[in-house]
Amino acid sequence: MKWLFTLTFSLCCITFTAHADISRDKDLNIAEVASGLSIPWGMAVLPENQLLVSQRDETLSRVDMNSGETTEISGLPEDIRVGGQGGLFDIRLAPDFEDSGWIYLSYSKDVDGQGATTLARARINDNQLVDWQDLIVTQSRTGNSVHFGGRIAFDGKGHVFLSLGDRGERDYAQDLGNHAGSILRLNLDGSVPEDNPFVGQDNALPEIWSYGHRNVQGLFYNTETDTLWAQEHGPRGGDEINLVKPGNNYGWPEISYGKEYWAPLAVGEEKKAGMEQPVKMYDPSIAPSGLIQYQGELFPAWQGKLLSGAMKLQHLNIVTLNENNEAVDEKRLLRSLNSRIRNVIEAPDGAVLVGTDAGVIYRLTPAN
Fold it and tell me: Are 334 and 310 in contact (CB under 8 A)?
């Protein structure tokens, strides 16, 4: 009987450990995958444990996650406008990548000396991009070098989403006649879906899915629950997580929980009829970037939680939601790295990959 008790006790401990929440950095294995990169804006896992990393300075690299060896991918267009917050942005594999080979990228395109957030796709052949196609050069040009947005997400139903910031012109976010301050929804070939909310409406661009956003730096579509999550920068305070629905107005700059940079004055009101409230608001700002809703089995306690990078406050932000998609808890990990976390993705095996502005990629797994 003694061996039976020991076995039962051991199994209980294993089960408890596997489902125990992770509240400290030492509850994690934090393994360095690669270093020496520039700002790793986007990441996408290829077969055979390879990682594509898009870097804001107009560099695309393939990282062998077994050896850490990095190879540069050539063939990027010459009109990427690098400067300020502009450059090469996100990278995602098409949902049908195994068949089509398409890779989607976003970047700031130089148009007459100004930057326009652009969605493109290409294929890779022998470490070179081929078949490059600009799917949409957005109507968002300004002379400012801030608030490009640039995150990409897929809904698994033949559509791709692209986020844009207000491009430093606040009023643009309430103007449906341009793309700035909005989230766009396109067919995978760049055409406009007929069921987009503003199709056929006068003085509104048909690609727009939602508007009133300041600068969406995290975008994730949960294909299991059909929900689109967005995380955006507020001004001084007022970063937001939003549950995005078609045609909705998320308020910027008419409503905000942030303050002006130049004085302790509120930007707009906190609430207004016809404008959506955030699921979660951060004050002070954490400067979020990169967002997933964890779905893997390696971290059972994280399933359904929103994980995002924080640049200003330098941590991995973990938000717990209830059954009504209300934020009910928050944890902050990886502060021991002392690095701005630029992006977060989930690997096929359930590990979490984070990229920092120090040019380092880390792989997170449970310590136990």
Answer: no
User: Which residues on neighbouring strands pair with residue 308, listed in sequence order?
Assistant: 291, 317
Domains and CATH numbers, the chain: 36-288 (2.120.10.30)
Residues with Cβ within 8 Å of 85's Cβ and at least 6 positions away in sequence, in order, are 145, 146, 147, 148
Catalytically active residues are 147
Determine the average pLDDT of the residues in 318-343.
98
Maximum separation of any 2 CA atoms in the chain, in Å: 81
pTM: 0.94
Kindly tell me if the per-residue pLDDT of 17 is higher than 90: no
SS (H, E, C) the chain: CHHHHHHHHHHHHHHHHHHCCCCCHHHEEEEEEECCCCCEEEEEEECCCEEEEEECCCEEEEEECCCCCEEECECCCCCECCECCECEEEEEECCCHHHHCCEEEEEEEEECCEEEEEEEEEEECCCEEEEEEEEEECCCCECCCCCCCCCEEECCCCEEEEECECCCCHHHHHCCCCCCCEEEEEECCCCCCCCCCCCCCCCCCCCEEEECCCEEEEEEEECCCCEEEEEECCCECCEEEEEECCCCECCCCCECCCECCCCCCECCECCCCCCCCCCEEECCCCCEEEEEECCCCCCHHHCCCEEEEECCCCEEEEEEECCCCCEEEEEEECHHHCCCEEEEEECCCCCEEEEECCCCEEEEEECC
Q: What is the CA radius of gyration of the chain?
A: 21
pLDDT digits (tens, 9 = 90+) for 246-284: 999 999 999 999 999 999 999 999 999 999 999 999 999
Q: How far is CA 314 from CA 285, 334, 337, in A?
A: 11, 8, 8
